Structures are given as structure tokens and as C-alpha cells.
Amino acid sequence: MTQTQQQAPGQATQPMVVLSQVLKEYKVGKKTITAVDQVDLTINKGEIFAIIGYSGAGKSTLVRLINGLETITSGSLTVDGFEIAGKRESQLREIRSNIGMIFQQFNLMSSRTVAGNVEFPLIVAGWDKAKRQQRVAELLDFVGLTDRAGNYPDQLSGGQKQRVGIARALATSPSLLLADESTSALDPETTAEVLALLKKVNAELGITVVVITHEMDVVSSIADRVAVMEKGKVVESGQVYDVFSDPQTETARRFVGTTVKTLPVGQEAADLKARHRGFLVNIEVTEGNDSLGRVLSHLGSRNVSFNIVQGGLETLQGQSYGNLTLELLGDVTSLDAVLAELKTVTRVREVR
Ligand SMILES: Nc1ncnc2c1ncn2[C@@H]1O[C@H](COP(=O)(O)OP(=O)(O)OP(=O)(O)O)[C@@H](O)[C@H]1O
Ligand SMILES: [Mg+2]
After folding, report:
1. I want to staple 70 with a disulfide (CB 3.0 to 4.6 A). Which of 29, 64, 192, 303 is the partner?
2. Pocket probe mutation, ligand 1, options 24, 25, 36, 60, max atoms within 8 Å of Cβ
């Protein structure tokens, strides 16, 4: 995994971003809006960390707090060991130079060429011309846009624009890259390309990447760890596989349901029951569960037959995970015995 690739064996995990009891309130007239509510979160050096949540959950606010564009109301927030709370603008500027940022709408300057956009942060940072040109060439090569150096943003596709955004964000060699909905304006194929580039940024340059998204596919294809946000709070966090193979909150369950088939409920359950006269159960399937395979292959000798009537598997962090709904056919005693046996090897839920 990315996280371990960059660390020498035995080297302890080091924190890149640490939030302790971070609160962010906005005053709007007489009302107080709590955008980030007492968040505790640690993002480690070298990992790809995803923050997922529905609109208004507080994801972008969290990002703006991390890069010091907004000040926290209370709590503590450190980036690479530096406390951000209570810092002056000049001190924040220094911290910010260590953080790259990419956006949903790319935020490129339309009057500048691709090379000009990538060069801009280097001009701001006071690099001399020869060094700038060399660095721009390096960056365009890294993102695969050397042949587009002289083009203007509106001559590029969405995916190319985001690659320019990534090159620009990397210009001053930050150690942290924040990507706020960086693929939300792109089609699935282009999204995959941009995510592959973010993986390359992480693996080859050792940059810690924080991906903000409302798309489960983005999380499952790129992240090592994930935090699920809801109403300003982090309601679940951990390894992507752990969080999404056993979600504890309704929000996390809904996100998993967008990629992985889960227990059919409501109309879907009613439709399945109308079509199948047998006993319907949903079983969880995880890679390497050989015991489950053995139980299923012996159902015939237990006088029970089965049909797979619904389900799906997804890859999370390189491991298969999913759910299958089975129609079991047999007499009551045999079914009871089979259900008891299945329950010893996986999670079994009746479709109601
Ligand atoms: N500058 C602001 N002034 C007042 N309220 C704000 C401000 N910025 C954000 N909020 C509020 O804080 C909450 C969190 O907003 P935020 O933009 O962080 O959510 P988000 O998770 O990024 O949503 P989205 O997925 O739509 O981008 C919302 O209720 C929003 O209206
Ligand atoms: Mg947002």
C-alpha cells in the first residue's frame, strides 16, 4: 500500500495533519452555523486520505481550515508539526507554501497558457526565469502535457485542465496536496485518469494526498483511509476496507450502497420476494472466505438448493467485498441447519 511504500521498514507512522477538537462556526446575522463540529482527525505522512460526505457536511470548510484560508473557532490544528490556530497571515503564507490545492472547477487563468499557469506560483515564489522554465518542463512531463505547453485552458479537455491544475499545485514541491472534489466535473473515464495521476503523485513524489469527495468510487479506487463526515462531524473513520465492509452509520451505509450491493430493503426486497418463492437471505462475501465456499458447495448434501438472485462484488483496497442474496429451497429443518451453518462463516441477514 502507498502508506507503507514510502516508509522505510520499521519507521513509525508520522502525522501530517492533526485536528484536535476543531470547531468552526460562521456567524450569519444572529444565527451561528457550525460547519465543523469538534473534529478529531489524524492524516499520516505518505497516505492517501479521503473525506467523504454529502453536500453541506463540512468537507470544504475542513479543507479551508487545513490550508489556513479560514481560521478555526476553537481547538488545535497542526500541519507538519506547525500549529495553524492563532497564526498571522505572514506565518500562514509560509505554511501554505507547503500545501498544494486542486479544485473542482480547475481555477486556471484563461489568459495564460498551460506553461504560464504552471509557472505562476513560481513567479509568486520569486524563482528566476531559467529555474522556472526548467521546473515547468519537469512538471508538464510528469503530468503528460509537454505537447500542450503553449495551449490555453479553453483548448483543453476537463481531464487535461485538471492535470494542469495538478502540475501547478505541485510547482513549489508541497508535502501535502488537497483535492476538493477534483474529479466531480469529469466523466468516469477521465476521473479514473486523474485519480491515477494522484496515485502517481503520492507513490513517486511521496506527497500526502487528501481527497474530498461525495463519490464512493473515488474513495474505493484511491484511498488508504477514509473519514465519513455528516453535519460537521466525523462519524466514522479508518481503513477504507474496514469502514465500508462494516459501516456503523446510516451515512456510511448509504455510500457503500452506491457501489456495493447491500441488503435489499423496501421495494427492492418486495420485488425479490414477489419473484422468488424460496427463503431469501443476504450473505456477506469477503475475499479469502474459503469456509463460505465450502458451506455453499455442500448445501446439496444438506437437502437444500440455492439460486443467486441478486448481488455484487467490489474491490476495496485490493480485496473483494460484497453481498449476495440467495434463494434457499428446502424443508424447514434443513433450512434451519443450513442457516445456522452459514452464520458461523459469514454475516447472514434475512430479506424482509
Ligand atoms: N462562509 C460561510 N458562511 C456561512 N456558512 C458557511 C460558509 N461556508 C460554509 N458554510 C456552511 O457550512 C456548512 C458546511 O459547508 P461546506 O461547504 O464545508 O460543505 P461541503 O461538505 O463542502 O458541501 P459540498 O459537498 O456541497 O461542497 C454548510 O451548512 C454551509 O452552508
Ligand atoms: Mg464542498
Report:
1. 64
2. 60
Residue with the smallest CA separation from ligand 1 atom 11 is 35
Residue 62 alpha carbon to ligand 1 centre in Å: 9
Take residue 316 and report the three cell numbers written for it: 476495496
Asked if residue 312 is part of any domain, the answer here is: yes
Separation between Cα atoms, residue 331 and residue 334, nearest integer Å: 5
**Residue whose CA is at the smallest distance from ligand 1 atom 4:** 26
For 112, other C-beta atoms within 10 Å of its C-beta total 15
Residue 93 has pLDDT above 60, yes or no: yes
Around 279, how many Cα atoms within 13 Å sit in the side-chain half-sphere?
18
If you measure from the C-alpha of residue 41 to the centroid of ligand 2, how many angstroms do you get, rounded to a whole number? 18
Q: Is 31 in the pocket of ligand 1 (CB under 6 A)?
A: no
Q: What is the CATH number of the domain that holds 11?
A: 3.40.50.300
Residue 166 contacts by C-beta under 8 Å, 6 or more apart in sequence?
102, 143, 177, 194, 197, 198, 201
Average of per-residue pLDDT across 5-28: 82
| Residues 210 and 73 placed together within one structural domain of the fold | yes
Q: How much is the pTM?
A: 0.84
What is the model's pLDDT at position 21?
A: 97
Lookup: cell for 7: 516508509
DSSP three-state, residue 186: coil
- Taking only the tens place, the pLDDT of each residue in 259-297 is 777 788 889 899 999 999 999 999 999 888 899 989 999
Same domain, 216 and 178: yes
CATH number at residue 278: 3.30.70.260
* 160 Cβ closer than 6 Å to some ligand 1 atom: no
Which pLDDT score is estimated for 2?
Answer: 41
- Which residue minimizes the CA distance to atom 13 of ligand 1? 35
Residue ending a domain, choose from 199, 229, 257: 257
User: Binning pLDDT at 50, 70 and 90, where does residue 319 land?
Assistant: confident
The pLDDT of residue 227: 97
Q: Which of 204, 233, 257 is the last residue of a domain?
A: 257
Mutate to test the pocket of ligand 1, among 59, 63, 215 (most ligand atoms within 8 A of CB): 59
